[in-house]
Write a structure and sequence with these properties.
CATH topology: Nucleoside Triphosphate Pyrophosphohydrolase
Low-confidence stretches: none
Distance between the termini: 53 Å
Mean pLDDT: 92
Number of strands: 7
Shape: globular
CATH architecture: Alpha-Beta Complex
Helix content: 10-25%
Structural class: alpha+beta
Order of helices and strands: HEEEEHEEHEHH
Largest sheet: 7 strands, mixed
Amino acid sequence: MTKPTTDRATDPEVAADPRLDLTTPLTPGDAVACILVVDGQYLLQMRDMKHGIFFPGCWGCFGGGVDQGETERDALLRELDEELGWTPPPESIRLFSRFDFDLGFAGLGAIWRIFYEVEARREVVSGLRLREGAAMRLFSSEAILTGGIPLTPYDAFALWLHINRRRLLC
């Protein structure tokens, strides 16, 4: 038996689940993200289950918005410090890719998300403390590629590209 159709605004199950929220305003902006590689695995952050954020309850890369006047690299370092209490050595940070999103359909301009690759040793990761998000965990390429975990779509694509980077032909 299927559940009868309800009014989304008054259904307590819908109101309680931020993944089903269609009314809380979102504020997209330019962002940076870290593809954090640890011994061939990827350290990801579980996004909080709260209203008003993109893809609540999904796994994704560490990172966030770029503040006014801030360089992309400085934003990445700030975000990693805020979220993990960690500043990677500058030589370990490599630009990976940039995605541009046209939000003209919403009356907004274009925004971008820049992905950096950062490699870390397992002993560094064991000392990290999650300061933002619901959890952090290492995932294998297989877990990411098979869709076994809910991933933010843009991070899923960046991770797929990273995993398959040697297959891309010029």
